[in-house]
Write a structure and sequence with these properties.
Blueprint: H1 3-58, H2 69-113, H3 127-177, H4 182-213, E1 222-225, H5 226-236, H6 238-243, E2 247-251, E3 256-259, H7 261-278, E4 284-291, E5 297-305, H8 336-346, E6 350-356, E7 359-367
Parallel strand pairs: 2-4
Antiparallel strand pairs: 1-3, 4-5, 5-7, 6-7
Helix pairs in contact: 1-2, 3-4, 4-8, 5-7, 7-8
């Protein structure tokens, strides 16, 4: 069985198991309410029957021939009618107990739908109600975090987008006025070109993220030289790391993998660009490839010197729109690492980060074959 077939089979098994658990849960819930209603009606019959017997024995009510068929029929009709009324009242009263948690959940969901993401519910510590509360609150917390990240992204993206536009507009106006030397014109045109490329990269990242997010099945799988692809990514970013006088160390042999070349190219470009961005002047970046402990997999590492990533942020940096640098001192819009994580997962791999002792290392575990 190949890797794709195995993954598909595992997915189908999990899906079927989830379906069976959902059916079992609904069946248990139906049986619970049925038993409750049956017990309520039984209790109502006993109460009304006991009351009628007491009234007959005390002589408060009497029949001419209580033991006759007509008398028994009247007693049964009175018992049934009274039991129906009492049972209905009891069901209405006790029905509020199981319905109240449902009403609380519905009310909470309506608040979430209205954008009140700080909504939380408390249904008690029961095995079922406690689990529902925890699941609801976790969902609300995730929605709240996503909304905060989205808001931050809009603010950050607006800031990042506005800066190059202002530069382009300003230098274009200066060139239009004239009275500039050839050197000044060349310098201003270079700035306009750089800022235009920056805008293009930002727009491309957003489009790439949207496209990759919507992709659920890996297509266009080929076998290619991973080492050569990483070297090409390094060369593509040469202008950036040479401008900071960074020592780029490539430590790997030739390795072949199966995957989508276009998507994996995004991984290496984003990781290397990220390492360059946060490396100090004259720093060092080390890129390595080796056989992973996992069977039939490679371990690719990108390590740079520089400011450490706090442990509390090491998981969040892979979230869409999240930026660890709140000062805008470095370029970026919080999409690059989200693309990395998504692409690696599409290739059945894993990406992680470690940051300590003045070094940050991103590690990608990638299967050789799919």
């Amino acid at each position: 069985m190949d890797r794709k077939t195995e993954l598909r089979a595992n997915f189908n098994r999990r899906f079927e198991q989830a379906g069976r658990e959902e059916i079992n849960y609904r069946f248990k819930l139906t049986m619970f309410f049925s038993i409750v209603n049956f017990l309520l009606m039984g209790i109502a019959l006993l109460i009304v029957g006991g009351v009628i017997i007491t009234l007959l024995q005390t002589g408060i009510i009497s029949f001419d021939e209580p033991s006759s068929s007509r008398g028994l029929l009247i007693i049964m009709l009175i018992n049934a009618g009274a039991s129906l009324c009492v049972g209905t009242c009891m069901a209405f009263f006790f029905g509020k107990v199981p319905v109240k948690p449902i009403s609380t959940v519905i009310e909470g969901m309506n608040k979430l739908a209205d954008g009140k993401y700080d909504t939380r519910i408390d249904l008690g510590d029961g095995q079922i109600t406690g689990g529902v509360s925890d699941s609801f609150n976790k969902m609300a917390e995730e929605l709240q975090n996503t909304e905060l990240l989205r808001s931050d992204f809009i603010n950050n993206f607006s800031h990042e987008f506005k800066t190059p536009i202002v530069s382009i507009l300003g230098f274009a106006k200066l060139i239009k006025k004239g009275n500039l030397s050839d050197d000044q014109k060349a310098e201003y045109l270079d700035i306009i070109e750089e800022e235009s490329e920056r805008l293009s990269r930002m727009a491309t990242n957003v489009l790439d993220m949207t496209r990759i997010e919507n992709q659920t099945i890996l297509t266009d799988i080929t076998r290619f030289n991973l080492s050569e692809q990483i070297r090409s990514a390094v060369i593509l970013l040469e202008k950036k790391w040479t401008a900071k006088d960074i020592d780029m160390m490539l430590d790997f042999d030739e390795y072949m993998v199966e995957g989508n070349t276009e998507l994996l190219k995004h991984v290496w470009i984003n990781l290397i660009d990220n390492a360059v961005k946060f490396s100090p002047e004259g720093g060092r970046i080390h890129i390595g490839i080796e056989e992973a402990a996992e069977q039939n997999a490679l371990r690719i590492t990108v390590r740079n010197q520089g400011k450490e990533i706090p442990e509390s942020e090491q998981e969040r940096i892979f979230s869409k729109f999240y930026q660890s640098d709140k000062s805008h001192s470095t370029e970026g819009n919080g999409i690059g690492l989200a693309i990395v994580k998504r692409v690696v997962r599409l290739h059945c791999g894993n990406v992680s980060v470690q940051s300590a002792d003045g070094h940050t290392t991103f590690t990608v575990i990638l299967p050789k074959t799919l």
